[in-house]
Write a structure and sequence with these properties.
The protein is α/β, with parallel strands linked by helices. The chain is 31% helix and 25% strand. The strands form two sheets. The protein has a seven-stranded parallel β-sheet with strand order 3-2-1-4-5-6-12, sandwiched between helices. A five-stranded mixed β-sheet has the order 8-9-7-10-11. Strand 5, helix 4 and strand 6 form a beta-alpha-beta unit. It is elongated, with a radius of gyration of 19 Å. The two termini are 20 Å apart. Bound molecules: nicotinamide-adenine-dinucleotide (NAD) and ligand LLHOTIJI. Nicotinamide-adenine-dinucleotide (NAD) binds next to helix 1. It holds the Pfam family DapB_C.
Length: 265
């Protein structure tokens, strides 16, 4: 297999440090640099917990020009992730984005940019294969059960709510379900937010607690029955086979792929 040269943004983070391991463990992947908001000019090896000798850049464009990567893996924050993704496309680098918190407008803008530049990008709200199946099964179930609520649960350091996965699940369900307001037509929230966020009438509830990693239950209700579809990630390694798949596939596409379900065979 041809070597794929990779830059990781957010390499010191919970996901980024797993991605550094993944790249190191994959024969045809080669880490050429990392991007951080500090430690300019140091080697990653100088930081505790890493033994990879690659340069750290704080300026992502300088990093692209000097190290000429094929792929950027972005695992940062919603605000920074958008800037990095745009800069990658403008510099001919294919982004694989795990960072969540992008709006519909952001996605449209990035899609337009991939079309203009003619290079691929993958934005995956969830890299765990089980989570992709959970979303697909939920979409299947929604054809038969129109009443559905999504309960996503994450660690308490998460910046965005609802989670990228929760939102993507609602979007996928909405493609097969007519817009419908659920619950009693006269229901009233005594405390704002009690009924959760509302996407086309689908209610989304976000739980944030220490001890959690990433979990989601999609709850369907029908006459005298409920159906629950649940996925749990117990560690960040659970996301890495999806990251690998995305890096390999981003080299083969020339448009924006939003969601790993679009490349899973
Ligand atoms: N798609 C998935 O499967 C998946 C799974 C887990 C997390 N995530 C998402 O990935 C992102 C990262 O999650 P995390 O738990 O690793 O967060 P984290 O806070 O542990 O890591 C974020 C990293 O980004 C770095 N960073 C911040 N500003 C930066 C900048 N300007 N330039 C470079 N790096 C910068 C931070 O230093 C930190 O190391 C979040 O958006 C999260 O929602 C996605
Ligand atoms: O830990 C996080 O943050 C996660 N974010 C993604 C999301 O927003 O759906 C995927 C799961 C973990």
């Amino acid at each position: 297999m041809e070597e794929i040269k990779i830059v990781i943004a957010g390499a010191r983070g919970r996901m980024g440090s797993e991605a550094v391991k993944l790249v190191g463990d994959t024969a045809h992947f080669s880490l050429v640099a990392v991007v951080d908001h500090k430690h300019e000019g140091k080697s990653l090896k100088e930081l505790e917990g890493f033994d990879v000798d690659v340069p750290i850049y704080t300026d992502i464009e300088k990093c692209f020009v000097e190290t000429k990567p094929d792929v950027l893996i972005d695992l940062t924050t919603p605000e920074i992730g958008k800037i990095h993704t745009k800069k990658a496309l403008l510099n001919g680098v294919r982004p694989v984005v795990g960072t969540t918190g992008f709006s519909e407008e952001d996605l449209k803008e990035l899609q337009q940019l991939t079309e203009e530049k003619g290079i691929g990008a993958i934005i995956a709200p969830n890299f765990a294969l089980g989570a992709i199946l959970m979303m697909k099964f939920s979409q299947m179930a929604a054809r038969y059960f129109q009443d559905v609520e999504i309960i996503e649960q994450h660690h308490d350091q998460k910046l965005d709510a609802p989670s990228g996965t929760g939102l993507k699940t609602a979007e996928m369900i909405a493609t097969v379900r007519d817009e419908k307001q659920q619950g009693h037509p006269n229901e009233k929230e005594l405390l704002t937010g009690a009924r959760g966020a509302n996407y086309n009438g689908i209610r989304l509830h976000s739980v944030r607690l220490p001890g959690l990693i990433a979990h989601q239950e999609v709850l369907f209700g029908g006459d005298g029955q409920t159906l629950k579809i649940r996925h749990d990630s117990y560690n960040r390694a659970s996301f890495m086979s999806g990251v690998k798949l995305a890096v390999e596939n981003v080299m083969k596409v020339d448009l924006l792929v939003y969601g790993l379900e679009n490349i899973l065979e």
